[in-house]
Structure prediction request, 870 residues.
Amino acid sequence: MEDSERRGERAKHLFLSHLQARVGSSLVARLGNLSPGAIFETPYADLVGKVGKDQKLERLFDGLQRRFDLALVEAQMKERGISAITLADEAYPGMLRNVPDPPPALYLDGAIPEEPCVALVGSRKASATGIEMAGKLGRALAELGVCVVSGLALGVDAAAHQGAVDAAGRTVGVLGCGIDVVYPRSNRALFDSVRRHGALVSEYFLGEAPLSWRFPARNRIIAGLVTTVVVVEAPEHSGALITARHGLEAGRDVWAVPGPPGVRECRGSNGLLADGGGVLWDIPEFLEAVAPRGGAGPELPAPSVPADLPDDEAAALCGVGLEPRGVDAVARRSGMVMSELLPALALLELKGFVHRDAVGAYVRRAVP
Amino acid sequence: MSVCRARSLSLFGIDALPVEVEVDVSPGLPGFSIVGLPDAAVQEARERVRVAISNSGYKFPMKRVIVNLAPANLRKEGPAFDLPIALGILAASGALAPAGLERAAVVGELSLDGGVRGIKGALSMAEGARKEGLSRLVLPCRDAPEAAVIGGVEVFGMRTLKEAVEFLGNGLRRAPTEPAPQNETDDSAADDFADVAGQRYAKRALEVAAAGAHNVVMSGPPGSGKTMLARRMPGILPPLTMEERIEVTKVHSASGEGNGSLITHRPFRSPHHTVSTSGLAGGGSNPRPGEVSLAHNGVLFLDELPEFGRTTLEALRQPLEDGHVTISRVAATLCYPARITLLCSMNPCPCGHAGDKRKACRCTAGQIERYQARISGPLLDRMDIFVDVPRLSRQELRDEPSAEASAVVRDRVRKARATQISRQGSPNSMLSGRKLRKMCVLAGDAETLFSRAVETLGLSGRGHDRVLRVARTVADLAGERGIGADHLAEALNYRRSHLLGR
Prediction:
């Protein structure tokens, strides 16, 4: 009895979610706080008084109302191995429930972690420094057990996700399209990594296309899921600033990484600082504020060394840290001679324990 | 009868070809002409010879003098025919017994006071004389010790025209010049690896490169010590064999850079990046060896590689492939040897600071790509070792344990190179194709590791060969016959970074 009631509620929310995916999320507001149930049941003709006459809306409404089939939607989700949580479910993230205009339903591939979440967002065309900063922050947050939430776009978003994945932490990607649509395509590998290390989340049903108005809308979900929004690098009129504004409206902490004055790519993030955002000038200080650890040193603890490694590889691995280091620095820290260190490093790289970056520096990797 | 013959030699590339100087003095209006395809410098010999003969106390014949340089189809260059022409004229006019000229080949430039000046390519001349079966060579005093090194030819150095006339006329009563003493180079004063703090990775890479004659690219921010390391490369190279010394000296002597003795250390050339194509590869209307030939059997160091002109660098492809440069002109085709170890340095990006911990790089990905695309793929394919040279902080420099001296490194390099020469007759960098497969047999666990590396790192066919060649050298440095997993693993470190594409 209770089950079927819950099913009915879920159906109404899923219907509303399908409707919003077509007409935008302001619909509920225009209907004047009508409950999802009421929207589901009232024919459009009776709602006209509240939203005004709109032929497109009318067609959509009628079509959806007549053809909406809960069983079909559930079968499709089951086939793709994804789940949905609606406002009617208790599992709906509490943080998100309390923001203005929460999405009626979220489609999930993976699970939203219990841990505290922090959003790292920024420009798609960030500078090398910005990308590097996003990666560092992603790694550092993941090391502390904080889940990194971002938008799986190019640039800062991708670097932040990758940082969290590299540190074997948790990360959630919020999409502006159906979660079976990979956009941008060059992020395909990253989509898979994020799925394995956390979840892909979207308010849009399977197969919905990445339309341009859907990205600003999904930013309210990013802001809703987290306690803190960090803007790494953003020009004026950037989507990252929309996320920050949603964050402020929802009462989240907003931080920004300071950039050089007068540089166009940093005007948006610097503007946030001028408006009183948190200044992220020092990573340890930021981490302390976001996730207090109680007196640990500024250096992050290195992951432990697996016991089954041969001696020289274990010694070499001790010399490689979470910050990229040149071969000479590794040699100094591990105390090994070069002719022994070089083979050990290559073997560690092949085994996937370390990663050699573009300038030949080595960094620890989460064991695959 | 008044035709007299003197034998001489003409430099052609770095080889000397025989030239016969025929002089005819006959009655008629006084005059002096030279025929036989002479260039401007040879034509001017008329004035020098005329004045030098009178200033030496002889009489220039007041007759018709015709000089023919045979074979007539070979272009003759340079002032080295002055001395044979003068001697021929003196013989034809009776101041010197013509039989005296039969005894020796003669080369040398004259000055107006009758003195004999130095020439280019003395060593090649002596070698050419030996090849022609001439047992004696008369040449300027300055160049005699260099020429004597070749052996098999008696070499006599002359200071003045008069001295030469008396020597040839009086039946050669004089001992031949001794070869220049080959003082083994004293490297204690030279740049030493021990002076470079840190950079053990780069030093190890240079050691491997020196042992196998591999080409190297060093990449790092400005001020990281790339140039300093490169300058110390000659100090760890294996010593030249006698044959190689002669080759090196011939090239330097032919370009006029010889100093009258045999060159005993491997050359190190570092042309500036504004060098022209013919400056680098050799050429010009009077062809002379370029930097790549002057670095023969040694190191050619190209600092700031992407700053060199693209066409200039492309000219390096033939010498890197074949070990020589061919210069074709309408008149002739010349060939200079150019077997070099190429050592290059470059910044990782236009601003130079990509990956530098102490200064942020603000280059965009596009800028970096364009910067690195300036070096063509085919050229990069000839490079075996890629090494990153990071900039060290003062703290890191202070903590560094004291470094090995060049002499210690050179000992290991010398042994490894000797192994290679006795095994395959060439340095490992020359291995390719079937010879490479035969010489680079992988032990069992190394084979497993290699197939895994090829898969994981996505090595191309060329990359595959490069790793094998370098692994062979690492094994030789360790004194092992087979290539073990450790050697292969070390070689994997020297592959190209992703920044440069795969």
